[in-house]
Amino acid sequence: MLTLDRQRLLPLWRRVRNLILLVFVTVGILQDNRPGVRLLTGVALAGLGGTLLALRILPPRRHLMAACVTMAAGLWLIAVAGPGIAPIYLILALASCAAVLDLVTTGVLAGIGLLALTVALAARDVPVATIAIWCGITGVVTLLVVLRRQRTAAAEQERLLADEQALAAMLAERARLAREIHDVLAHSLSALSVQLETAAALLERDRTAEAAVLVDRAGTLARDGLTETRRAVSALRGDPLPVPELVGELTRGYGRDLDAPATFTVDGEPRELDAETGLALFRAAQEALSNVRKHAPGSAVETRLAFEPDAVVLRVRNHGPAGPPVTGLSSGYGLIGLRERAELAGGTAQAGPDRDGWLVDVRMPG
């Protein structure tokens, strides 16, 4: 809140400061010189132009015109009333241009202004040292305003970049949460659906005992879904997962639920993986087996987890459809999320037809 107030109040203070300085300069010139038409004309033009420049209410082109009028009036006052403090009008005009106009225009105007100021002061027999002081002050003030403007622009760029990075991080976290929700719900709900649809078909044939077994299994799957949810929360917190145990249980669960051949093999020496890699492998196995449940329920499945020296490879292969596909369950985002998750963790994921079935191949560094 304090930063916002400072950002809003600082430009306002600079305008007020410039107006106060303009008033002091104008009053000082009027007090030091006898009033006359030429003097009052110069003071009026310099005061009007300086006020417009201080308020910064003009578009760039008109701001440039006001700056030229103010500088010309300042030079006119030097010629009419002597050097005095009239060069301050030129300083105000050039500083205002440095704060509003582009660098090229400011540079050209500053060069013209310094040359004109030198000539005007020299014409009034002002010592060279005094001319140098006025020109030096004018140049330094203009340069300081340019530097301040560039520093402000750089700070604004950094703020925008930080905002964009924060937005990207937020969107990435949302995508991550969305994948977790999808993976947990898709797996649990697809398994539940298969069990309940089969139970309903059995009930239509008055095979209540077998239907009760499936309903009981559906309850188990629902509880497993809750466990998956807790596991997802744990993974999001960065806790490592026991990948071989989890993938093996997934495979055995598929075989048990669908009474289908399902084998799980581990090659190499298992090692602990970081949370992101472990979660990507676990979700890949979950998504692959969930797809088999949906598209080829009962198909024989081979799951292989290989711990290579610098990578871990997961392959889930099924061998042709053993039953009709279960409709109405696929969201169409499972394989997309699988690839996104693998790529975000530095790995790759491929899925496609393979011999008589379908193969999901995931390779993760680790």
Automatic annotation (TrEMBL):
What is the originating organism of this protein?
A: Actinoplanes oblitus
> Keywords of this protein's UniProt record, alphabetized?
ATP-binding, Kinase, Membrane, Nucleotide-binding, Phosphoprotein, Transferase, Transmembrane, Transmembrane helix, Two-component regulatory system
UniProt entry tagged with the keyword tRNA-binding: no
Q: Which SUPFAM superfamilies has this protein been placed in?
A: ATPase domain of HSP90 chaperone/DNA topoisomerase II/histidine kinase
Record's protein name: histidine kinase
Catalytic EC class: transferase
Spans traversing the lipid bilayer: 37-58, 64-92, 99-122, 128-147
Task: Tell me the ranges covered by the Signal transduction histidine kinase subgroup 3 dimerisation and phosphoacceptor domain, including all copies.
Answer: 173-239
Its recorded reaction(s) are: ATP + protein L-histidine = ADP + protein N-phospho-L-histidine
MF terms from GO for this chain are: kinase activity
Q: What is its EC number?
A: 2.7.13.3
